[in-house]
Design a protein that fits this description.
The structure is a single chain. By secondary structure, the chain is of the alpha+beta class. It has 10 helices and 15 strands. The strands form 3 sheets. The protein has a 7-stranded mixed beta sheet with strand order 3-4-5-6-7-8-9, sandwiched between helices. It has a 6-stranded mixed beta sheet with strand order 11-10-12-15-13-14, sandwiched between helices. The protein is globular.
Length: 273
């Protein structure tokens, strides 16, 4: 059962307004910590927002469990445990783009997905500062601030495409093909949520990622798919349309049209090898 979409939207907006937005530009040294390396930051906004979202969302959907980014960092077995069960899973990224947030830069987003019966059934991406929200429900389309949105599906060639590539992929492309430039424009926000929003809203045409975690990509891939685009994971088991319980897979390509997806996939074959 999927809970009321608007109730979930209200919860995310309220928590973002209370725990995240007031701390933007106001963090003290003790409010910021590191996790796996010096660039992997966590702030008091991340931990407090996740704590409250976990409590409110599991109460909204009795029997559900939560998989938050910060909780998973402290308990390495949590991700495997929740995916091994049958309970609905709230996948929470309280502040996506924490490095931007901690350094008083934008964009950053709050991201949430509901995963049930082996697939992502609903997703929300919220701008904590403005309250702007992009929402998708499986089979019902994608909406931005209540208005339906679609990908820019007429873009079928990489040479006309605008998209997001992490620096690792850009560097591997350059190594494989020299200085050839395949795309109209390349960007990187250091915030997956904002990148997914721009693809779903038709401002950009594709995004490519490695080192995949469910809280980074379960929400955004549903937004893109429900807006008419394609999102596919790669793993040792082959291609998958949704995040799966066995882990993160090797890579992820989202694109606004099948033709564009196929061309990007071919271009990136040397990168994955």
């Amino acid at each position: 059962m999927t809970p009321d979409i608007d109730k979930v939207t209200t919860i995310i907006r309220e928590v973002a307004a209370e725990e995240i937005a007031p701390r933007f530009g106001q963090l003290e040294a003790g409010d910021i910590d590191t996790k796996t390396h010096a660039q992997d930051l966590v702030t008091i906004a991340d931990t407090e927002a996740e704590r409250i979202l976990t409590r409110r969302l599991t109460a909204l959907l009795p029997g559900s469990v939560a998989l938050g980014e910060e909780a998973a960092h402290h308990d390495a077995s949590l991700q495997k445990t929740v995916f091994a069960g049958t309970a609905p899973i709230w996948i929470i990224d309280p502040v996506d783009g924490t490095k931007n947030f901690a350094h008083q830069r934008q964009p950053f987003r709050s991201m949430l997905a509901l995963y049930q019966d082996g697939r992502t059934v609903a997703a929300w991406i919220v701008d904590p500062l403005t309250g702007d929200v992009t929402v998708a429900e499986h089979g019902s389309g994608t909406f931005h601030n209540g208005m339906p949105v679609k990908v820019r599906s007429e873009i079928m060639s990489a040479s006309s495409a605008r998209g997001f590539l992490i620096f690792y992929v850009r560097n591997r492309l350059a190594k494989a093909y020299g200085k050839r430039h395949f795309f109209e424009k390349l960007s990187y926000y250091s915030c997956c949520g904002a990148e997914y929003q721009d693809v779903a809203l038709g401002n950009y045409d594709f995004c490519v990622y490695r080192t995949l975690k469910p809280w980074d990509h379960a929400p955004g891939t549903l937004l893109v798919r429900e807006a008419g685009g394609i999102a596919r994971y790669f793993s040792k088991d082959g291609q998958k349309d949704d995040y799966h319980a066995n882990g993160s897979g090797a890579a992820l390509i989202c694109a606004s049209s099948p033709e564009l997806w196929d061309e990007i996939n071919q271009l990136l074959q040397p990168v994955w090898q």
